[in-house]
């Protein structure tokens, strides 16, 4: 499995363009700029497509011409910018499946032309489906747009057997949700850590403390083990400056994702494991 992080930042990016806090100034001075979180998997499958993501991809040197499937977690604008469907239609780019919760797909309808080969595939937590050559399991998110259940997470297995978890956006999982990922032994986990050192911003996102709690839960469930690479994404400016962030995440067995980072993810075993 070949994964390119097209973005590793929160909705507002990091630095937040309107902010002069120490964390944003430090990131700007280092030239570590993070756009809205998204990942391109095997060149064909896009995990989330926020309003800023297509331009981020181009600036990072990645074409989206080969994308045949978009997995949308929820309708927040940093995860779904449906206008991209119109821009794509000007490129005669061929068939596309947009997979996501029904409420998110509703946002797409007005941006699809009558002859545009775009198919909307509604899913909910608990579903399993083939998406092109990838197997996708839909997991619940402790996050909502308008109603419980209108945000999901994705568990993706590549044809070579490598398996990843795309977990943004989500707050802390209730303890009884971990059974859904029991013994998953992911090769790569991309999980949000939005709020950094701020613990007072609600439970729709993770901060460093709850990020550690979720990782511990995933380890206990056998979803994460010593061979799993864990990248924190959806990073916002309430995080400490980069060296402090790296130290805090390394202590938890993780690293911060960076825009443009390419992760070659070798499988543990050949072929689909499920
Ligand atoms: Zn978000
Ligand atoms: Zn969100």
The N- and C-terminal alpha carbons lie at a distance of 16 Å
Please identify the structural class as seen in this structure: alpha/beta
DSSP summary, beta strand count = 14
- Order of strands side by side in the largest beta sheet? 6-5-4-3-2-1-14
CA radius of gyration: 17 Å
**How large is the share of residues in beta strands?**
15-25%
Q: Which molecules other than protein and nucleic acid are bound?
A: zinc ion
**Unreliable parts:** none
Tally of individual helices: 6
Shape: globular
Give the topology string: H per helix, E per strand: EHEEHEHEHEEEEEEHEHEE
Output mean pLDDT. Answer: 96
Helix content: 10-25%
Structure characteristics:
274 residues, 7-stranded mixed sheet, binds zinc ion, globular, 6 helices, alpha/beta
Q: What's this model, at a glance?
A:
18% of the residues lie in helices and 23% in strands.
